[in-house]
Amino acid sequence: MPQKVVIPAPLRKYTAGAEIVELEAETIQGIIDGLETRFPGIRSGICESSGSLRRFINIYVDGEDVRFLSNLETAVRDGAEIAIVPAIAGG
Amino acid sequence: MSFVRGLKCRECGHEYPARLQAGCEDCYGPLEVDYDYDAIKGVLSRRLIESRSKTIWKYRELLPLDREPVIGLGTGGTPLLRADRLGRALGLDNLYVKNDAVNVPTLSFKDRVTGVAINKALEFGLEAVGCASTGNLANSVGANAAAAGLPSFILVPENLEPAKITATQIYGSLLIKVRGNYDDVNRLCTQIADRHPWGLVNVNLRPYYAEGSKTFGYEIAEQLGWKAPDAVVVPMAGGALISKIHKGFKELERLGLLNGEADTRFFGAQAAGCNPIVDAVKRGSRDIRPVKPSTIAKSLAIGNPADGYFAAGLIAQTGGWGEDVTDEEIVSGIRLLAETEGIFTETAGGVTVAVTRKLAAQGRLRRDALTVLAITGNGLKTQDALQLEPAPVIEPKLAAFEAVIERAAAGAVA
To answer: ipTM of the predicted structure?
Structure first.
């Protein structure tokens, strides 16, 4: 069963406006690679050129920040919901 | 008339027109309002500011509204009090308290930011406003939205203090409890802002909202006789307030309104159960490692602070420091401020006082430095964090009263 990836507004310029994208992968890194294959250029909106996550981008797997898991190596279960959320809000 | 030039990314410098926007489209960094300071310098003077009534709007040229404000007209102008009795207890000879526990309409510094944000929402013609909140922002959005005649929806962590729930719902706000901590609520709120055309004060109205915090700094400087203090101790949740107080001092300096320089050292205060910014400062880094909050200081319980990166950098750059304190120390801090200065602050204020005690003991705060504590919220909202001694109950007889007094005197001696 594929995973659902929620694309935030600033990245939808790469996905022809799509808010939800379905992909199949085993890790977050795999999800990012899969997104790049389908939507060339989107990686640069998510990662630094070194491959690490950009400072103001957070990724959540089923609601949990991947920094509490295994970062880009975090495994994603079948049917998981992955949310890419810019870290621009706060109390 | 507005002196706003537009919005500018704090990270990459990309410029945008002044519109409803959450972050930079290039790097997702936070946006900041940019002003025409030369034009402001031409019109703004100490005399003009001093001639205006004591509210945040006396600094209106430095706030991002295009029209006259219509709500929050009484906000700001809170007391800056010399705190000699607290200073003696902490070993500090030149201590002041900036007391936003008595800000209006809702008894916290958040009234400064929502005053700007809700007026801006009216200028943008928005249909509704909302926020993610640890409580004080919820109260303030609720009150100011009601005054503006705008519907409001407010998302809070499920475990929020009952007083902060009541003091939000009373305004007719739609308050929604979210299972999870503030960071979960905040993520949801960011996603809501993506989908609905509403004004989320701490998301897509954030560049304007955050400007309101500068008035906390303007007031301190004006109340000290147009001087920046040597040091400030500021509680940190998302990390925005500390940066905006700094911006406030720097703007006054740039406009030639300060005596001397804005060379204040910034000290950040957090709870030990939620200390991601202090942790970065102590590591000598700006990179935030998020945490899962566990503290009675719920208004500071943000484990993934959006402005933490900037706050940690500012503290290091100004020669300040960060410290954190336990729940027991927080309660002691609340009691100490109340017993020495007659100010009842919420848990966040307890954090600030207790951290100040620690910094003074470490010698990081110099004894003679003019130091200002940022007291940002009111103790009536977090009474459940305090377990005080049960009050004696007596018969309505003089003898019973005298017995209580005798016991109290004996206790005081012991």
So the answer is: 0.91
> Could you give the CA distance from residue B187 to residue B384 in angstroms, rounded to a whole number?
28
CB contact under 8 A, A86 and B237: no
Chain A / chain B CB contacts < 8 angstroms: 93
- Separation in Å, CA of A26 to nearest CA in chain B: 24
Asked if A86 and B28 come within 8 Å (Cβ–Cβ), the reply is: yes
Does B30 contact chain A (CB < 8 Å)? yes
- Reported as a single tens digit per residue, the pLDDT across B102-153 is 999 999 999 999 999 999 999 999 999 999 999 999 999 999 999 999 999 9
Which DSSP letter does residue A75 get? B
Give dist(CA B366, CA B364) in Å, integer.
6
d(CA A27, CA A59): 12
In chain B, what residues touch A90 (CB-CB under 8 Å)? 186, 202, 206, 237-240, 302, 305-307
Written as six digits, the tokens of B25 are 């489209």
CATH number for the domain running over A3-86: 3.10.20.30
* H/E run at residue B404: helix B398-413
Spell out the domains of chain B, with CATH numbers in brackets. Answer: 80-107+211-385 (3.40.50.1100)
Q: Over 90: is that where the pLDDT of B411 sits?
A: no
- From chain A, pick out residues whose CB is under 8 angstroms from the CB of B306: 87-90
How far is C-alpha B89 from the chain's CA centre? 24
Nearest to B58 by CA among B101, B122, B69, B66: B69
Average pLDDT over residues B264-282: 98
